[in-house]
Write a structure and sequence with these properties.
This protein is mostly helical. It has 15 helices and no strands. Helix content is about 75%, strand content about 0%. Keywords: Membrane, Transmembrane, Transmembrane helix.
């Protein structure tokens, strides 16, 4: 039986910090993978790596599922892993890893909207104030770019819509996990949902791309493969288990707050990779942290 909901427990905050580091590092790993592979190859192999490492956990458990659970786990696999795994690399072909990490922080906004429209949930005034402040921080991070100007919002091209689409997928998945998996453990949800999408990822990777050819001919293919392997095994498989634990022990709102702290790590990696962090970025980061604190303080 999962732990009872305790919004501000030490366990939940520890999970938030660990997931921030793991997922905040995902965007630089995607960037490294895209130096050799296409967005589709990065997304498909990420899913293959994640699902494969969890096979010892998923295969013994899948036989105990009923038909309804299988359908729900397939839905969770598609929304929480498969579709976002393709959308983020596609976005990063035209967006920097830092900006992609920042846009990912829009997820809590969609969690609130999806919950209100489809799952009959509500948001408190305190949560709303925290969301507003953190969202302002995200806007500052997006608007304040190299050169110190604010007109660079025009630089957000249509590829940002792929990140937004991924955020919407995540928000639906948060509520699906919270409402449809009261009888399943977090490790079962994580491992079996990835098992459900493994055939799709394998079929696309080896029948629809030049992945195998690149491994045999590209001089940097195996280096890039290593980055995407870490992305799949740590950034997806391990992190998904931790995230589902947090979703089941806290509220969807609290669990979604990890997307507010992810930009901090994503921007730090961007700086190490040669991107510039300006005063406006510090202001935005401070607003994000303040919003998280206000939204969840006792």
């Amino acid at each position: 039986m999962e732990a009872s909901p305790t919004e501000n427990s030490v366990k939940n905050w520890a999970l938030l910090v660990v997931l921030t580091i793991i997922w905040g590092s995902s965007f630089i790993l995607i960037k490294r993978g895209l130096e050799v592979f296409t967005p589709g190859e990065v997304g498909a192999y990420r899913m293959v790596a994640a699902a494969t490492i969890l096979l010892p956990l998923s295969l013994p458990r899948v036989r105990n599922l009923n038909r309804k659970q299988v359908k729900n786990l397939l839905l969770a696999g598609l929304l929480g892993s498969f579709f976002p795994a393709f959308l983020f690399p596609l976005a990063q072909t035209q967006l920097s890893s830092s900006l992609t990490g920042v846009l990912n922080a829009l997820t809590p906004l969609f969690v609130v909207l999806v919950g209100a429209v489809f799952f009959d949930t509500r948001i408190t005034k305190r949560n709303g104030l925290g969301l507003l402040i953190a969202f302002v921080g995200v806007v500052v991070l997006v608007a304040y770019k190299e050169g110190g100007g604010w007109d660079s919002l025009a630089g957000i091209n249509a590829y940002a819509l792929f990140v937004i689409a991924a955020c919407i997928c995540y928000s639906f998945n948060l509520h699906v996990i919270k409402t449809r998996f009261t009888q399943l453990k977090s490790i079962e949800i994580s491992s079996i949902s990835l098992l459900m999408i493994l055939p799709l990822a394998l079929l696309y990777l080896f029948a629809g791309t030049q992945f195998s050819y690149k491994l045999a001919t590209h001089p940097r293919a195996w280096e890039a493969l290593g980055y995407v392997s870490i992305l799949g095994m740590v950034g997806t498989a391990s992190a998904l288990i931790l995230f589902n634990i947090m979703v089941k022990s806290a509220s969807p709102f609290f669990a979604s707050l990890v997307t507010y702290t992810i930009p901090i790590v994503a921007i730090m990696w961007g700086v190490l990779d040669g991107e510039v962090l300006l005063l406006g970025h510090y202001i935005g980061i401070a607003a994000v942290i303040l919003g998280v604190w206000i939204g969840n303080r006792k």
